[in-house]
């Protein structure tokens, strides 16, 4: 059963007097296994009232409350009817991501990260040993684990920078402001990790949210999204409208796009034993792994990632 976890409360019927109450996502009384709510609380207390988050009003045992942020998320701006459109100014999301990556949590060195170790453990302890249901022919735990181990070994060839990451930077977690800035919401997956992975996550989810409405999810149209968003991110990072991202940076983000697929399989698989879960887990894992193989085996990516 999928929970309702976000509430908009109008104290006096006016937007300026509104608050949002966000409850921790619980499935049958269990928290998501990849989430660290204590770390999330530390982050929210420090970004409260910043130019990319609202004012935090209260924390409680199962969530928190903050002032309402007016506007629509980029996800809600996507039309799924003809004529199909992308959200206006959607590249502005990269500005929000840059603000996240420039944030530094007090008491953290940002010299190391347990990013890969956390997902290796998640696969070992939470990924299903067999079918989620008889109709779902999903990759085995051994397959997913070995793919991630191979990618971790390959990652040594790529210069990945350790920064503060959002962890779930999809179009539903960014709200454009009237002054051109962006609010960033839903911080439960925040962590210290690799900025190139966080950006690849954004590219991939933009592609899945937007392009699949109009066209088939293919390597070619996925890479077009990557190129566009990587360039926009780099220009925001450098605060220059004509900055050109280095080829090595582009290559690293594309590599992290492969990592994204395996980690998504791990995350989705970790919910397999929750009864009445309103989400096609097996189908999601199978399609994600098939897309991973499609991208991994594409001749252009083979040449750019594996043969160079």
Question: Any overview of this molecule?
Answer:
- This protein has a single domain (71-306), classed as Aminoglycoside 3'-phosphotransferase, Chain: A, domain 2.
- The model has no long low-confidence stretch (mean pLDDT 84).
- It is globular and about 45 Å long.
- Helix content is 45%, strand content 13%.
- A four-stranded antiparallel beta sheet has the order 1-2-6-5, covered by helices on one side. The chain has a two-stranded antiparallel ribbon with strand order 3-4.
- With 308 residues, it is an alpha+beta fold.
Short summary:
The protein has 308 residues and is an alpha+beta fold.
Question: What are the salient characteristics of this protein?
Answer:
two-stranded antiparallel sheet; globular; alpha+beta; Aminoglycoside 3'-phosphotransferase, Chain: A, domain 2; 308 residues; 10 strands
Proportion of residues in β-strands: 5-15%
CATH topology: Aminoglycoside 3'-phosphotransferase, Chain: A, domain 2
Give unreliable regions as ranges. Answer: none
Task: Please identify which CATH superfamily we are dealing with.
Answer: Aminoglycoside phosphotransferase (APH), C-terminal lobe
The rounded distance between the terminal residues' Cα atoms is 46 Å
CATH architectural group: Alpha-Beta Complex
Shape: globular
Can you give the mean pLDDT? 84
Specify the CATH class.
Answer: Alpha Beta
The total strand number stands at 10
**How many structurally independent domains?**
1
Number of discrete helical segments = 10
Structural Rg:
19 Å
Question: Largest sheet, if any?
Answer: 4 strands, antiparallel
| H/E series | EEEEHEEHHHHEEEEHHHHH
The class by helix and strand makeup works out as: alpha+beta
Helix content estimate = 40-55%
- Order of strands, widest sheet: 1-2-6-5
């Amino acid at each position: 059963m999928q929970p309702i976890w976000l509430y908009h409360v109008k104290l006096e019927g006016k937007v300026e007097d509104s608050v949002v109450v966000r409850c921790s996502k619980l499935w049958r009384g269990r928290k998501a296994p990849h989430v660290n709510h204590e770390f999330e609380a530390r982050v929210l207390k420090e970004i409260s009232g910043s130019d990319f988050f609202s004012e935090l009003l209260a924390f409680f045992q199962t969530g928190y409350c903050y002032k309402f942020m007016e506007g629509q998320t980029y996800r809600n701006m996507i039309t799924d009817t003809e004529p199909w459109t992308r959200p206006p100014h959607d590249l502005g999301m990269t500005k929000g991501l840059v603000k996240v990556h420039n944030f530094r949590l007090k008491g953290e060195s940002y010299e190391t990260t347990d990013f890969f170790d956390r997902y290796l453990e998640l696969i070992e302890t939470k990924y299903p040993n067999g079918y989620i249901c008889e109709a779902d022919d999903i990759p085995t735990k051994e397959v997913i684990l070995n793919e991630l181990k191979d990618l971790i070994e390959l990652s040594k060839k790529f210069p990945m920078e350790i920064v503060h990451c959002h962890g779930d930077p999809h179009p539903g977690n960014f709200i454009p402001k009237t002054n051109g800035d962006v609010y960033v919401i839903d911080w439960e997956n925040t962590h210290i990790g690799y900025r190139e992975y966080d950006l690849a996550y954004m590219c991939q989810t933009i592609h899945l949210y937007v392009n699949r409405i109009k066209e088939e999810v293919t390597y070619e149209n996925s890479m077009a999204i990557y190129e566009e968003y990587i360039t926009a991110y780099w220009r925001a990072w450098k605060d220059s409208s004509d900055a050109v991202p280095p080829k090595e940076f582009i290559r690293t983000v594309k590599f992290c796009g492969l990592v994204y697929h395996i980690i998504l399989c791990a995350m989705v698989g970790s919910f397999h034993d929750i009864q009445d879960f309103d989400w096609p887990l097996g189908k999601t894992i199978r399609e994600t792994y098939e897309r991973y193989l499609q991208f991994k085996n594409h001749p252009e990516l083979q040449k750019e990632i594996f043969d160079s």
